[in-house]
Amino acid sequence: MTNPPLTLLQKWQSLRLPWRRHFLIGKDLSGNTYWEFHDRGTTSPNTNPSTKWRRILRPNPALNLHHSEVKPPPAWHQWLRHTRPNPPTIEEQKADVIRQERLKILAAEADRRWEAKPRYIEDLNKKKEEEARKPALEGRGMWVEKRLEREQQRQEEKQQEEKQVPKEVKTEEVWEGMKRQAATAEGGKKHDPWKQKRAGPGEEWQPQGWTPAAKKP
């Protein structure tokens, strides 16, 4: 809220009257005022153009701040250093504040995106690893499934064969096998090991019984 008496006083102080040595140039949004003046004993810049006006900042008394604690806006800072010829207007200062707030918001969003980028890259790498691992796992699972199916099929076929063969046939086969084993064992016992060593022709000769010869007439 503006103060009419203060506004009227500042307008009076900004008038460039010939006898004055300092003039009010403007103020910032914090209420600090900015002045131009020239020292006593020097020629007035109004009469001598080569003499420069000196520029100064006067803090707002209501803020109760020391000169070192006052931070003027960038535009007023340029004006104080004579790098800006014209002082900034109130509208320009408000637009600069809005611009700075917008820059802060954009910087915060950029920081959030920058922080989220490593997480996004990690999630993307994990997704790629899972996709690369998925076909191998699926192939292994299919192989295990097929193997189980084959084993189950074999068991079913075996069970069906056992059901189709009668029990009597199985018993006969067992008995026949046992007989063959017994015969093989007996044949091994009757085998004469000395027979293989009788290689001479006379070893198997046996004497025959005597038969009298017939009488001659």
Give the terminus-to-terminus CA distance: 187 Å
Which overall shape is indicated by the principal axes computed on the Cα atoms? rod-shaped
Mean pLDDT: 77
Side by side, the strands of the main sheet go: 1-2-3
Low-confidence stretches: none
Q: What share of residues is helical?
A: 40-55%
Q: Give the count of helical stretches.
A: 4
Radius of gyration: 62 Å
The total number of structural domains is: 2
Structural class: mainly alpha
Question: What is the H/E order?
Answer: HEEEHHH
Strand percentage: 5-15%
DSSP, total strands: 3
The major sheet is characterized as: 3 strands, antiparallel
Family: Belongs to the complex I NDUFA12 subunit family.
GO biological process, one term: mitochondrial respiratory chain complex I assembly
Protein name: NADH dehydrogenase [ubiquinone] 1 alpha subcomplex subunit
Biased composition (Basic and acidic residues): 148-179
Q: What is the secondary structure topology, with strand pairs?
A:
Blueprint: H1 4-13, E1 22-27, E2 33-37, E3 54-58, H2 74-80, H3 90-164, H4 167-190
Antiparallel strand pairs: 1-2, 2-3
Structure explained in plain terms:
Residues 148-217 are annotated as: Disordered. Belongs to the complex I NDUFA12 subunit family. InterPro entries: ComplexI_NDUFA12, NDUFA12. Residues 148-179 have a biased composition (Basic and acidic residues). A hairpin with a 5-residue loop joins β1 and β2. The chain has helices at 4-13, 74-80, 90-164, 167-190; strands at 22-27, 33-37, 54-58. The mean pLDDT is 77. Strands 1-2-3 form a 3-stranded antiparallel β-sheet. It contains 4 helices and 3 strands; from the N terminus they run αβββααα. The protein starts with a helix and ends in a 27-residue tail after the last helix. The protein is mainly alpha-helical and 217 residues long.
